[in-house]
Amino acid sequence: MANNASPEPIPLILTRPRLASEFFFASLPESLRVLFTPVFSPLIEIVNLDVTVQMALEDAAIFTSANGVLAAPNGQGRRAYCVGPATTKAAKSCGWSPEQAGTDAKSLLAALKDKRPMQRLFHLSGQHARGDVAAQLTQAGLNVERVVLYDQRLCDLTEMAINTLRREERIIVPLFSPRTAAQFVAVAPQTASVHVVALSRDVANALGTAQLASLAVAARPDAQAMSTALNELTKKT
C-alpha cells in the first residue's frame, strides 16, 4: 500500500524583527507556507530613539526601510522616496505621498541623482544604515540631512531556534542583511545542516567561511525574489 503521508515540515528560522518576520512569512504563497514550521528568532531588536524631526511641509523624506517609516512622524502628505514596495506601502499608510525609487540603496541613489529633487531631503533611518545615502547625495549636490530615529540592537537566538539547530536536521534560514548574517554565524550552535537563502551577495559574503549545507542568493534584493529562492530550494532539498 502506498505511503501518502505528507513530508515533515521544514524548520524555517526567521531572524528579522518579529513584525517584519511575520509579514514576510504571511506574504509567502500558501503552497509554500505549508512546507515550513516557522521559528521566529529576531537577531535585531528595533529600539526607537527620542528624536524630534524638524521638517517643513515642503520637505521630503527618504526611507530605506519600513522601520524608518514606523519610527517617523506622520507624513502629513509630504513626498517620500522609498526603497522597495514594502517600504513604499508602509509610507503610504503613514500619511506620506510615497514614490518607490529603487529596490536597494544603490538603485535609490541612482534614481535620486537622476531625478534631482529640489526640496530639502531627510533620510530618516536607523543607526546602522548601508550605502551612506545622505553623504553620497550631498556630494552629488542635493540638500540632504540624515536623522537617526532608531537603533538596531543585536539579539541572541531564542531557545527554540537553538534547540532546532542542535537537532542538525534540514533547516532553512532566510537572511536579509549583512549584519544579521554575521550575527547568525556568531550565535548559531552549528550551521552545517543549514540551507541559507541570502537577500544579496553582500549578505552572503557576511557569512564568511561558515560551513553550510547550501547557500542561495536571491535574483533581486526583494521579498518576492526571496520567496522564489525559497521555493526553488524546497525542490532541491
What order do the helices and strands come in, and which of them pair?
Blueprint: E1 10-14, H1 18-27, H2 30-33, E2 36-40, E3 44-48, E4 60-63, H3 66-71, E5 79-82, H4 84-93, E6 97-100, H5 105-115, E7 121-126, H6 133-139, E8 144-154, H7 159-166, E9 171-175, H8 178-187, E10 194-198, H9 201-205, E11 214-217, H10 223-236
Parallel strand pairs: 1-2, 4-5, 4-7, 5-6, 7-8, 9-10, 10-11
Antiparallel strand pairs: 3-8
What are the salient characteristics of this protein?
single chain, 237 residues, alpha/beta, Rossmann fold, 2 domains, six-stranded mixed β-sheet, three-stranded parallel β-sheet, 10 helices, 36% helix, 24% strand, elongated
Task: Tell me which CATH architecture of the largest domain applies here.
Answer: 3-Layer(aba) Sandwich
Count of DSSP H/I helices: 10
Structural class: alpha/beta
How would you spell out the order of helices and strands? EHHEEEHEHEHEHEHEHEHEH
Rounded mean pLDDT score: 93
Q: Can you identify the CATH class of the largest domain?
A: Alpha Beta
Major sheet: arrangement of strands: 3-8-7-4-5-6
Q: Radius of gyration from the CA trace?
A: 19 Å
- CATH third-tier fold name of the largest domain: Rossmann fold
Q: Quaternary state, please?
A: single chain
Q: Which blocks of ≥5 consecutive residues have pLDDT under 50? A: none
**Approximate helicity band:** 25-40%
Number of domains: 2
Strand content: 15-25%
Secondary structure: number of strands: 11
Distance between the termini: 26 Å
User: Which term fits the overall shape?
Assistant: elongated
Sheet with most strands? 6 strands, mixed
